[in-house]
Amino acid sequence: MKQLCASRKLVLGLQYFIPIMEWAPRYNFAFFRADLVAGITIASLVVPQGISYAQLALLPPIIGLYKLPASYHLKN
Questions:
Q1: What residues does the SLC26A/SulP transporter domain cover (predicted)?
Q2: What are the domain boundaries of the chain?
Q3: How far apart are CA 71 and CA 76, in angstroms?
Q4: Predicted confidence (pLDDT) per residue in 16-55, tens digit
Q5: Pick from 36, 53, 41: which is nearest to 70 by CA?
Q6: Per-residue model confidence (pLDDT) at position 1
Q7: What is the pTM of this model?
Q8: Nearest C-alpha neighbor of 56 from the set 44, 64, 68, 65
Q9: How far, rounded to the nearest angstrom, does the alpha carbon of residue 55 sit from its chain's CA centroid?
Q10: Which of 5, 52, 55, 61 stands 20 to 30 A from 23 (CA)?
């Protein structure tokens, strides 16, 4: 096995614990545009769903909006 220099080991270790450091240099505007469209699409579906679930639970609709970020992270 090849010996890696200390700086290369540091970079590999950082990329392991902070994955954005690996793919960020290759990220371009086309990826950003696609990610933006995907985010808007998901938001247009999830916001009305959150409001509806709050109303079904007889809660104010705004509660459904407050719940959205938590529910997304719990599913993933």
A1: 32-66
A2: 6-75
A3: 9
A4: 899 888 888 889 999 999 999 998 998 888 889 888 988 9
A5: 53
A6: 42
A7: 0.59
A8: 64
A9: 27
A10: 5
